[in-house]
Specification:
Nucleotidyltransferase, domain 5; 12 strands; Rossmann fold; alpha/beta; about 325 residues; 6 helices; seven-stranded mixed β-sheet; elongated
Length: about 325
């Protein structure tokens, strides 16, 4: 089954399904992409045939194969075999069910929790009301570490209309770089990649910000962009540091994502501190807060000096970092 989708910068979708053409306006490019993927996935399941999806949008042209089981294969520019529905023999993996790596502190309930004394003496031999459930004992978490950008908050959310606002802002492109590229000089992968709807990418706004380290502390549903490029209409968290160049790159990428110039959607931001708290200046903190509010959700990871040491395996230490990892896993599972 063949589909052709053309999405313009305003979010208007022109869909051609084997000669049957429709046009529909959407609030954003990303909303139009979600609609296309929903139609392609349902069509593949209903017809038991792989849907070959040809796309043209602000991020450029591409071809995607949507299989009957929901797997998505983006055909790379070097794949000239033309075999519809073929899956790569290597470089693919099924994303397993998400299992959080960071375990919360468990508080075991006592074997026999004492029942508060009733206002009146109970009759002899009474065992209490069998129809009243005892309150569940929930694990108590330690207070989250204070952060110079977010304070005592775990995360912050940008305004509800932030994506529509950013979509109207001009996007500056580095000289010689096409729209939608991160400016790192990376080439497209030589082989197509199979992903699922639960895959979440971590994308570095600049080099050495800790995206690979964070991905290594998460489950297999969280993929480092340096290993596999994000799929079209896929979900990604942007990772930046507190350096001026990295924050400025995150600012530009937020605008590119909102305007559809990136082939994937940036659903949030993780700011990794690259220095101790007392070395962050007020202008840097103010700029970082402004960048954070350009994303649907933003989190911060504290400075980890041990991550820079040779021969030391990164560990998840501190309540804030553990909270960030849990939040990343939740976004991978539920999308928010």
């Amino acid at each position: 089954m063949r589909m052709t989708a053309v999405i313009d910068p305003t979010g208007t979708l022109e869909l051609d399904l084997e000669g049957e053409k429709t046009t529909a306006p959407y609030a954003s490019v990303m909303d139009a992409r979600r609609s296309v993927m929903s139609v392609a996935t349902e069509l593949a399941a209903e017809t038991s045939t792989t849907t070959e999806l040809h796309i043209q949008d602000p991020s450029g042209p591409r071809t995607i194969l949507v299989h009957t089981d929901g797997d998505i294969v983006e055909r790379s520019t070097t794949d000239v075999s033309g075999g519809q529905g073929q899956r790569p023999a290597e470089g693919t993996s099924q994303v397993p069910a998400v299992e959080p790596l960071v375990k919360q502190t468990e508080v075991a309930a006592p074997a026999a929790a004492p029942t508060p004394a009733p206002p009146a003496p109970a009759p002899v031999g009474s065992q209490g009301n069998p129809f009243v459930r005892k309150p569940e004992v929930e694990p108590e978490e330690d207070p989250i570490d204070d952060d110079p950008i977010l304070g005592h908050h775990e995360s912050i959310r940008g305004p509800k209309n932030i994506q529509q606002t950013l979509a109207t802002k001009p996007v500056s492109e580095p000289a010689g770089e096409p729209a939608g590229e991160l400016g790192k000089g990376k080439e497209e992968p030589a082989a197509p990649v199979v992903v699922t709807s639960t895959t979440l990418w971590l994308v570095g706004a600049s080099g050495g910000v800790g995206a690979t380290t964070l991905a290594g502390l998460c489950s297999e549903s969280v993929v480092d962009e340096s290993e596999r490029q994000p799929a079209w209409a896929g979900r990604a968290l942007l990772v930046c540091s507190t350096s001026a160049s990295s924050l400025e790159a995150a600012q530009q990428l937020a605008r590119k994502s909102a305007s559809g110039h990136l082939p994937y959607e940036l659903v949030g931001l993780v700011i990794v501190h690259d220095r101790p708290k007392n070395r962050l200046t007020k202008p840097t903190l103010g700029f970082a807060r402004g960048v954070a509010r350009m994303f649907p959700v933003a989190m911060t990871a504290p400075y980890q000096p041990s991550w820079r040491e040779v021969g030391v395996a990164p560990q998840a230490s501190g309540t804030r970092l553990k909270s960030v990892l849990r939040k990343i896993e939740k976004i991978a599972r539920s999308g928010h």
